[in-house]
Amino acid sequence: FLLWRSRGSGHSSPGAHASAWDWYHGNQGSGLCPKAVIYVRHQLSKAVICAVACAVVLVGCCWLLLLLVFLLLVVFLLLLLLLLLFLLLLRPRIPPVPISGPGTF
Questions:
Q1: pTM of the full predicted structure?
Q2: Is the torsion defined by CA of 52, 56, 61, 62 positive or negative?
Q3: Per the UniProt record, which residue ranges are transmembrane (predicted)?
């Protein structure tokens, strides 16, 4: 940024080519039409707004994707827990073997 600014002094001589900085800020050292300056500035502003909007959408989509993966993981773990509980309830019951009682030595 500093190098770009140092190239365009802001006071270009009439015969010199204007830098991008001069174009953006409307310094017409090269005889650039004010309408062209306004157009270029408008296009740059639109490009910056579009880039920011795309970044926001991408970040939002990433958060939504992470949330979706997290929810799917939670649902999978809950289903696994229910399956284990179901299998524990369905296992065959083994009657307890008496340690002492009538008929035992």
A1: 0.39
A2: positive
A3: 47-66, 72-90
